[in-house]
Amino acid sequence: xxxxxxxxxxLDALRSPITDDEWTIRRSKFESWRTLPSSxxxxxxxxxxxxxxxxxxxxxxxIETTLQDPYAxxxxxxxxxxxxxxxxASRWHLARRVDGLQEKLKELAGPRRMTPxxxxxxxxxxxxxxxxxxxxxxxxxxxxxxxxxxxVIRKGDIKVFVECKxxxxxxxxxxxxxxxxxxxxxxxxxxxxxxxNPVWLxxxxxxxxxxxxxxxxxxxxxxxLSLVHAPTVLLDNELVKVEARPxxxxxxxxxxxxxFVKVGGTQERDLLGGxxxxxxxxxxxxxxxxxxKPTTEIPAWKARSFWDRIDWGCGATWICSAEQSxxxxxxxxxxxxxxxxxxxxxxxxxxxxxxxxxxSGNDVEVRRTEKVMSSIxxxxxxxxxxxxxxxxVQTESPPSAAFNFDESVTxxxxxxxxxxxxxxFVFVPATTKARTGGHWEYY
Length: 443
Fold this sequence. Notes:
Layout: H1 3-15, H2 20-34, H3 55-68, H4 75-90, E1 98-99, H5 101-109, H6 117-131, E2 135-138, E3 151-155, E4 158-166, H7 172-195, E5 199-205, H8 216-226, E6 232-236, E7 240-246, H9 249-256, E8 261-262, H10 266-273, E9 282-291, H11 300-303, E10 306-320, H12 323-329, H13 334-342, E11 350-357, H14 362-377, E12 385-396, E13 404-413
């Protein structure tokens, strides 16, 4: 089955509870939004915030766009949404073994449209159990009445209740750190534009970003940035290390002679930063040049999203290796596991699945693994839970594909022999070849 076929299966399945007339209305909100004017800070996207009251509709809109007009996609959004859809579609032929699935889809299309990730995770887990021969029933929620697990699975004499929890993508600390980065980067970017020297920076903050004022870097880099003509270290102290390399504009333009490049996309950043701009990095870039020209077939909102020519560009890859930052971003999942266990019956077998995103780098995931191992070793469970599974997922938008996606699972069983009787991966298609260890160990 091709990826395009999977997207079609996924779209048809997820959109099934929505009538054509209703979808026309919901889709029109996103169509209207993407044609709005952009601003310097939002370029190439509209300056007005995207509608957020229908996140599930946004997912469907992106899947549909993938099939109908892939050049109109936001690469980062595509990389976030398409892998989940692909994984669901690879198992959708087993939907008949999941009782209550249509009711869950109606919830997604209706009352849970603003926060669809948890419900999509529940469906992914249900299909993974169906794939290995379980009959699955999704259990309706009873808010205000009693706590219920998400599903019950049966095979022969085996009956197990399953609870799923999906951690939010970004913690408050991570969101604050990104805001501090934007505050620090803005004057550096302005300085690079003023100097006119095309440079890519690699920055390692050794203390928390909240400790830096806006002028810290430019006070120390003004002279150095104008002299960058080869890879060099501009600043290296106990607070921060800043490396710099010139942008190879001739390499960049040679590429643009043959193809258009998405504005602000991973390919743009790969051309500017080279090996310093890997898809899993946290990056910023800024370019000046000429955009694709609108035509009768290419509207202005789409044309402004592609470079025809880049005359100048700069950017930066950054991390924060401060101990406090790593510790805060490596969110332990003990609380999530505890909340999940509370949903399970007190006298019947149970399994818990928790999913988190790995967005903050390898050091954070190594630390999170240490936390998880420590938490589980001291965990006290007051009911017959036989397994705890932590699914860590990573999405990225590579320069030459729609997405890369990894799912790594850390699992704990009361008896390790049980591992063979239950599913491990739930997001990636069943045909995906597994590797040992976590994906953060390979990049």
